[in-house]
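Re: that chain you flagged

S.,

Sorry for the slow reply, it's been a week of failed gels. I finally had a moment to sit down with the sequence you sent. For the record, here it is as I used it:
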Amino acid sequence: MSEQTPPPEAPPAYAPPPPSYGVQPVGLGPIGKVRSTGLCFLWTVLTLGIYTFFWMGFTHGELKRHTGQGLGGPLAVVIWFFVSPVMMFLTPNEIGNMQEATGRPRTLSALWGLWFLLPLLGPIIWFVKVNGTLNEYWESLGAH
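Prediction finished late last night. Pasting the structure tokens below so you have them in one place:
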């Protein structure tokens, strides 16, 4: 009688990427800046909302430089100025696309834009989740 070896185990459907320890994936551009959610919120209040234009511009500029895709900073600021609710859908969608493209689980999608429908509290919840997710992504690549 001959012994049969059992078949090898199939890999899991999703295996999270190993920690990068500050090494950025091949083919991606520069890493973006981690921005304190509390400090961003404070600047937004102190500047009566003007800081949001800077946040949109910087964030989308970093996303475009990092992935080579997306709106980029200037276009994001123009859209934010004229139809800001549209950006509440586009921003989390671009971050989710970036997560997916780098093999991470997608935690944001355009549906997060629906938070703008909840007066006052909705945009705060949206910003905390979106900025927090973006910060986690940059930190996973070694940003401080």
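What I noticed first: Residues 23 and 80 are 33 Å apart (CA to CA).

Talk soon,
D.
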